[in-house]
Amino acid sequence: MSSPISSAAAVNHPSSDSSPTSDIRDIPGGYGVPFFGPIKDRLDYYYGQGEVEFFRARMKKYNSTVFRCNMPPGPFMAKNPQVVCLLDAISFQILFDNSKVEKQNVLDGTYMPSTAFTGGYRTCAYLDPSEPNHAVLKGFFISQLAKLHSKFIPGFRQSISGLFTSLEEELSNKGKANFNSLNDIMSFDFVFRLFCDKNPSETPLGPTGGPKLVDKWLFFQLHPLISLGLKFVPHFLEDLVLHTFPLPFGLIKSDYKKLYNSFYNSAGSILDEAEKIGMKRDEACHNLVFLAGFNAYGGMKALFPALIKWVAIAGEDLHRRLAAEIRAVVKEEGGVSAAALEKMSLTKSVVYEALRIEPAVPYQYGKAKQDIIIKNHDSKFSIKKGEMIFGYQPMATKDSRVFDKPEEFVAERFMSEGEKLIEYVYWSNGRETDDPTVDNKQCPGKDLVVLLSRLMLVEFFLKYDTFTAEIGKLLLGSLVTFKSLTKGT
To answer: Could you tell me the keywords of this UniProt record (predicted)?
Structure first.
């Protein structure tokens, strides 16, 4: 069980503009020689040290969780790769304060993909809350999700039943089953049917075409953040191709058009509603594709394998306890419902712990709107107006001053007294105790993601007692290969 929150972490005020100058520490670190410094940091990040060691080494060198460095991709993709890096649970919170931090065009970091990938529009995710269109778009999608809430549980249960069937067939035929590929099909199926009220197999996308198109579209936007890890490809060649120049939209233009047309022709009721509030139909559809493909499907593509990975690593004892809790509550409640999910304290804790230890989106960025003072557990620092602030979430949510055994997956961490720690789970671009609004940048589907993650475990352990899996790594996330499944009796 995780220990109660420390007194240091309980100070939940990440910025203070009234601090005496004498109390403010200079931010350590630097950016190196122009042009060459960012390239050196990029090579260290992808090839010399690797992502996690890149941050750990600098944190140790500067004896600080706040320091200056360059973030990839750098030249020639990003004009200014210089950031102030935040690696603890306290300083990280400044990124949620939209009165002090601007979120315009920073979704992917120090660069922004061409708007050609989104029909020439800056979609909601790239807008700062101060921009009028942000409230229109985010408010619209929050309201649409609210209208669709009755479809969440039955729709997901329908989609995941197909995943289990395929999982069992693949295990039977091959002796192993790739969870990620099956999860991709399930996730896209659920998302498309949720927003379009139609099975993707009834469209030109077919039963498995959607995930492939979205994956290609995502890769072309996110390639500056990816290392393929191919041993037979020299580092300098991969760096030149992936991290130096943007891949042109023209190479996937026809793929995106097919994806866009499928939503445009199938999501008529949502697009009609958008037009009623004054939105352009094509702008609404490009935003819907982004929400469904980038945010929802992309998030589920990373999140569910991570969840299953950590449950697999935890082993059979946790599996038996989850199965016992889930089956007892479902029997007591007479079925699977939102009320039943709320009563499953261990299941809820496991989901929060997976979101803490391996958040689907590891990076958060923001630009200082004014001169601000931030603080970590020990010091205060001054950030100047216009400076880019970067938070590496997997380290902020493994802050040893907040979490006991932060590198370990502790299934019961958020049970009983541990519930006080939930506010330090930051996966949604906000505190888990906060709610998404038109005035912040928190994920509009935050509560849906938590619901579906719990539902994933519930459906799995209603059907199976335990399982084994091999764990690997993908471009942006974890690879899970099932080796065995034991059905419930």
So the answer is: Heme, Iron, Lyase, Metal-binding
